[in-house]
Each structure stands twice: as structure tokens, then as C-alpha cells.
Amino acid sequence: MRYKVKTINSVNEINWENIPVAKIDKVMWVKTNKVPTAFAQMVFIKDYGFIVRMTCLEANPKRTCTHDNDDLRVDSALEAYFMFDGERYMNLENNANGARKQAIRYNRENKKYFYNNEFGGFKVTPEILNDQWRITINIPLDHLVKLYGNIKKEDFKPGYRFTGNFYKVHELVGTPFEHYLAWQEIHSPFPECHLKEQFGEFEIIA
User: What is the pTM of this model?
Assistant: First the structure.
């Protein structure tokens, strides 16, 4: 599965109604009919970086966590995973309050949180409406290159490819709230969103 990341010239040109949608609709591990509709969108802004918007059609999402690095498993959460060097991936997890868990990882265990590093992590803007909520994540290239250390800003142009995934989860195990939804389905006998070899593909286009 491939998502084509549209290139635009500035933030002011973003019209989300015209940006392709990645449906987060693959139900995994817990079979239930009670799952919300969720989707993600992503754009590449020349000379700036990426902006990701994730939306969930869910009224009154559970949002008890208010601080970065709180245990977001107890809340309704949206997650974006991106791998830019073929080895390490970022996972950006957020609830409707905008509480963040941001880490760069080789796998689930080998990780380093960076929401409190020198650039303060990636900015997350939450928005709660009557029947839905969304988060917007800003990923400037300057910060991305600094975080990885082995990628170049000039590589990010039409034709550039990377991998990743989008998830909508509520990990209260054994409760009616528990669910795991993905854009790119993950094949595992148990809940495991960190299988980077099963990520989908992204491509920057003009």
C-alpha cells in the first residue's frame, strides 16, 4: 500500500478537502463492530517539511492524560509511524488533549524519547469538535534531519520514498473500548504495531 504525499509551496495553500486520505480501517486482533472511523492526511511543504493531520469520527473521546509521556494506552489515541533511514522509525502517539509520546526506535524495546529534546519534539495541535477530534503534527525538516543524523534535507523532493503506518487504538485490554485499527494491516498473532517490516510506503509527489 502506498500513500502519495502531495507537495505544496506554503502552509497557506493547504486545503485539506483536496488532500488524499489514508483510511485507518483495518481492524486487527480484537474483532468488534464498535470501532470509530479514522483517517490520516499528509502534505509536504517545500523548504519546510511535513504536516500530518489525523482525524477520528468519535464524540467525547476518552482523554484523561494531559502531560507528555503519560501512559496513553488508557485513552483513545491516534498514532503516526515513519521510517526515513530504513532502520529507525519515529512513533508519534497522541490523545485528544494533545498529550504526546514521541520516540525514535529500532524496535519496541530499543527506543529514545525525544518530546523534550533541544527542539521540544514535534508540535501537536489538538482539536475537538462535536462529533470528531483531530490532531495536526508539524514535522520540520531541520528537526527531522537533526533527530536522525544520517539523512539530508535535500533528499526530500518528489520521488523520495519512505515507510510508515497510521493507527487508531484504545488499548484498555479486555474492555469494550479495546480496539486496534491501521492503515496498513499488520499480521501478528498478538497486538504489535512496531513491526516495521510490514509498514506501508509513502512517496513525495509534485
Answer: 0.97
- pLDDT tens per residue, range 186-206: 999 999 999 999 999 999 999
pLDDT of residue 116: 82
pLDDT at 179: 95
For residues 66 and 72, the answer to whether their CB atoms sit within 8 Å is no
The Cα angle at residue 110 between residues 55 and 173, in degrees rounded to 5: 50
- The burial class, CB within 10 Å (0-12 / 13-18 / 19+), for 29 is middle
